[in-house]
Structures are given as structure tokens and as C-alpha cells.
Amino acid sequence: MKKFSLSLVILVALFSVFTFTACSDKEAEAEIGRLTQENALLQKNIESLQHTLDSLNAYGDSVKKSLQKLDMGR
Fold first, then answer.
1. How is 23-68 classified by DSSP, letter by letter?
2. Which side of the chain, N or C, has fewer Cβ within a 10 Å radius?
3. Over the Cα atoms of the chain, what is R_g?
4. pTM higher than 0.70
């Protein structure tokens, strides 16, 4: 997951460079803007999914500990 997140950060950096280099092509500028917005949305989705994964992992750990307490014979 971190590898994917790092890729998105690099992608944002590249889009930023293109944005600041003052493109003369209005279509290219519009595409960069669209892709930057899409990237921001994808980053929010990744953060939301990471939060969900963290919560599920914590819940799984809690269940595992509960099951270990019930299995006192081992």
C-alpha cells in the first residue's frame, strides 16, 4: 500500500511541475487540472481505505486475543 501511495505522491509532484511550467496549450492545462483533481480524489480514497484496513486489523487482533483467552488449555 505504501508503494502505491508513494507512486501517487510522485505523480502529484510531476503534475505540479507541469502546472508551474506555464503550458501554452490550454487543452494540456485542462487535462493536467483534471488529472490533479482525480489524483486528489484517489488519494482521499486511499486514506479512507487505509483507515478501514487499520480498523479491521485492530478488530481482528482483538478477536484473536479473545479466542486465545478462551483456549486456556494450550
1. -S-HHHHHHHHHHHHHHHHHHHHHHHHHHHHHHHHHHHHHHHHHHH
2. C
3. 21
4. no
